[in-house]
Amino acid sequence: MIIDNLINDCKQGDTKAFEQIYRLLSPKIFAVCLKYSRSYEEAQDNLQEGFLLLFEKINQFKFQGSFEGWAKRVVINYILQQYRNQGVFEIITENVIEDEVVEVEEENISLEFLTKIIQELPDRYRLVFNLYVMDGYSHKEIAEMLEINIGTSKSNLARAKGILKSKIEASELTSIPKIK
Q: Signal sequence span per UniProt (predicted)?
């Protein structure tokens, strides 16, 4: 398989092989960076730093599971570490609130709008939302990754959904044609 050969070449220090891996995976890894970053520019920085880290850690890949999945985890963990270093996840006592149900008429909401409002969420809410909803991690896994308790993970998810729901509802209200 071509990717396996490229990985082996990278493990031997071949930067041209890593450049090929970058070209193959950067669109998918950038999509991950966009989900976890505050802005497009921050996502670009995270992509570059994430790939530098991948190159440093490539010897740790043991050909168990997909390389793409491993690469995404490395980059997600890098981004989460940046937030931990910034103190985003300092312990705050939060009550778990009821899970918010968000009903969306898909034809009225663009992907660009959804990306924008997700990026606007406070860091702690955006990261939990993405880990849980977009990437399928459990609250237990999120709590371990972010070094928070499970209740905080659930609360942050519910708050993120609540904020998103109100922004979607507000956008739907403003897009209703006005009667003159």
A: none
